[in-house]
Each structure stands twice: as structure tokens, then as C-alpha cells.
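Q: Mind making up any chain with C-alpha cells?
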Amino acid sequence: MTDLPQPTETDIHDWTDPRSFQRGERYYRGGNIINPRRQGNTLRARCTGSRPQPYHIKISLDPKGIVRGDCSCPVGTGGHCKHAVALLLTWLHEPNRFKTVEDLETALGRRSKAELIVLIRRMLDSCPDLETLLELPIVGQTEEPPVDAEVIQRQARSAFAGVGYDEWGALYGIAQHLLTLVEIGDDYVEIGRWRDAATIYQIVIEETLESYGMVQDESRYLNDVVDRCVEGLEYCLIATEDPLRRKMLLGALFDVYRWDVDFGGVDIGYQAPCIILEQATPEEKHQVAHWVRDALPEEASWGRRAYGHFLLQLEQEWLDDEDYLRICRETGRRQDLVERLLALDRVDEAMAAAREASDYGLVQLADVFVAQNRGHVAETLIRERMATSRDSRLMVWLKERALARGDREEALALTERLFWQRPSLQRYQDVRALARQMARWDDLRTGVLARLTQKGSHTLLTKIHLDEGELDRALQTLEQRHAESRLGWRDDGLTIRVAQAAEEERPREAIRLYAHAAQALIARRGRSNYAVAATYLSHVRDLYRHLDEESSWETLIAQLRDNNRRLRALKDELNKAGL
């Protein structure tokens, strides 16, 4: 066992994230790892979890440490999950549990033909579905005929047949089945049989995309399958000189790109447009541009803008300015349009285009004007829009622009406007920070607090007083808040924050707040409310003990229990909390 390195706990920490490490440690200590074994430099095992069937894990090591891994759980790609952590911790602390087994090729290589036939029959008896694999080609055999497209299609379709997509591990199993076909395509690439490889890649892509809309591939298993196929098609394209074959390969790549755009953009086969741009000749780019135009949706949409971006990239070498601007307008590429108009010094047209944008779109375009040394124009556009819009992002942009210009007076005025537009503690802090830089905070603060008081903004005032360490004022405004509220006393976070702040300086006030919050929760009924109320009452008990007033606590808890003696769930939660 000593010839294979044992990563330290620090190594395992670095391999994963803190949450997965903590959970993986629990899985290790809980004995969830089943049948751990070592196969060369790879550790393998199964790990029980919340699903009915165990997950399959493998981790590869080398003298430098952990190299790569994989797990069949939904987040196991790369082997950074809690199940992989449990396996690595088992290897670290209990290496003797691992059974050493031969690698697959060695184990099969020492078998005779008759033994292999018997072994295969046993496998088929155990898993009859494997029999369909017998029709797949064995790449590298002499005088092997061209790949049978119908066989590959049948195999790809069988991956999706009879599977409940919501079942545990279904997508992982489908992806593994499809990757078996992809690896055959990779084998054909290795021996230079590009046409056979391309046939397999295309069929796997087509069948995967055909069924993609019926599944929720949150773990991107099927995305990874298509990405692998797209990478394979690139190798085929690079190695192919025949114009017709190249057109077919480019068409296959474009079909993946078009499917992704039309589906809404899930980044499946995301490399496809880049491969086309890098590998297509100018004549071929003309052909792809024609396909793009045929695919353009008629209505304005994200898809139309996405196609427009690709079209500009395809034709950038021969487009003149007017053609470029026309495509931008036709496909809704407003930012590209404004950038080119400004580069041509056609500022009035750029402004007209910007005025047609949404509020958020205008903010983005304002940065384009600034980048083109037209900041004053951007400010004019933003100010115009502010006259008819209350979108705070416009004012935020103008404030940041004023700061960039060094105009702190305007920045402060805008920051105040933002605060009064939607008062919040964060915006109050923004005003305070800027006003302090200008030595104007003391006077400004007095006016702000007076206006908030006049408006009855007791919640915000309480937050402000807490933030500024004014406990007595926070208690006062909190009291006013409760008194004026139709809901009366509440168990919300602000009350508890004030209570926590008051524990040392005003313990009796803290007791009062915790007790009110607990009673409000009890009045709402429900075990979860009772559990939270018990935590607040624990604070009350501790504070009374600190004041050496144990009798006051006993009186309070006895009265509370008596007043709510019919609430069995409350009694249970109080008992759990030791109250």
C-alpha cells in the first residue's frame, strides 16, 4: 500500500470545498464507503447516501497527490463531492480496507478465448441490456468495414429508451451509455478514419438533442456528451480537405449552435461557433452566413441578437461600414451599432440609437460613450431619461460618473436623491461616507434624522442608531415602531438585533425584548415557532442568572407554562431547551 501516496487532510481540503469536506467526513465516520479497492493508481468504491442506490466513485492519484476523480452523484463530475471526500479519508485512515485488484486489461488479457466467452455470457445473464454492445465495431481490426450508421443510431436511441428521466442516476447512466459511443468515435480519430468518427459524433449529437428537452440536465451530463462530440468534429474538420465533406461537418457544427440558440442558450456545444470561425475558409464562412440568415427569427428576440453577433463575426473581413450598421439594426445589436457609429464620428445617430434603448440598456450604452471619449454625451442621455424614469440605476451611473470626474458636490447631491428615493441603511451609509469626506456630515445628519423622524421611519431609524452605536435611541425608536404598528410586538430580526446589542449595557431591556418576541411567536402557534421562542427564552434565563435574579426567571417561566399549559408541542420544545 505504501507505493501509492496518501493525501493529507489538508490536501483533501484543498481538493474540495469546506461544505463537501465536512459532509464527506460524516460519511466516512458513518461507514458509508462500500467495497473500497485499489486498481493501479486509482481508488474505487461505492458510497451509500440519501438515494436508494449507492454512488460509484473513482479517484486517481500520482506522486504529486490527487489527479482527477469522478462520482455518479449529481455534482460528482471531477470528483470534488462529499462521496469522493469519504473515499479519500478512508484511504488516508484505513488503507488496509482496500483490496488490490488488477487493472481491467491485465485481468482480461490472461484469460483464454473460451474463458472470455464464459465471462461475457455471465455478464449478459446479469445485465441482458449489454448484449446490444456486441453489434458495436471494434476499432483497429484489419479490413474493418465502414461504421454502420443504423447500428450507432440504434445504440444511441437505446440509451434513452425505457428510462424514467426523473429516476435516480438516470441522466448519468444515459450519458455513460452515450460516451461509450463517443469513445469509439475517438478511437476512429486516433487511426485517421475521420468519416467514421464524424458519423458517430453526428448521430450522438442528433439523438441527444432530440431528447434534451424532456430532461432536467442540471448536472450537465448531456451537455458534456455533446461538447465531446463537437470537439471530435473539430478534429475531423481539420483533417478533411474534401469540400463536400467539410460542408457537411460545418453544417453539423452549425446545427448544434442553432439548436442551442433556438432552445434559449444553455451553452450546449458551446465551442461550435468558435470552431467554425477558426477553421472555416472565407468561402465557407459565406455559406455559414447564409445559414445564419435563414435561421434568423422574424421577431426581435435574444435569439435574433445572438445570430446577429455570429453574423458580424463571420462577415467582419469583408463588411463595409454601412453593411455592418445594417446588420446591427436588423438584428438588434444596439451596442455594436453605437460603437461603430461613434467610431465613425456619427454622434447624432449614436444618440438616436441609444434613446431607443431600455433604461438598463441605456446604462450599458453610456459606458460605450465614455469608452469612446464621449462621456459628456452619455451624461446628457442619462439626464434626459431621468426626467421620465425612476430607475435608480440611471442615477447611480450618473453619481459614479461625477465621482470619476472629481465632482463630489454633484455626487453627494445624487447620493442624497438616491437615499430619499428609496431610504435604506446602505444608502444612508453611502451618504454618510461621502459627506464625511467633504466635512459636511454633522449638519447633514441632523437634517436627515429629523426628516426620517417626521416621516415616522422608525424601522430605518432603529437600524441607523444600531449602526452608529446609539443603543438608547435604538431602543426608543424600536418602542415607537412597535407602538405604532398594527401588528404590535413582532419577533422579527430587528427586535432581536436590538436585544442582542442591549445584553451588556441594558440587560433588563434585552430581557423585555426577548420575552416579547417569544410571546409573539407562541401566539402564532406551531412547533417551529415554539422552538425559536425557546431559544429567546434561553437568553432571558441567562440574563436573569447574570443579574442574580433566578427567582424572577422562575416566576416568568412558571407563568408562561401555566398560561400555555394546553400547548403540548410548546411544552416539548421548552423541555428540549432545558427550560
Remarks:
- The beta strands are 33-39, 42-47, 55-62, 65-71, 99-100.
- The mean pLDDT is 89.
- The longest helix spans residues 170-190.
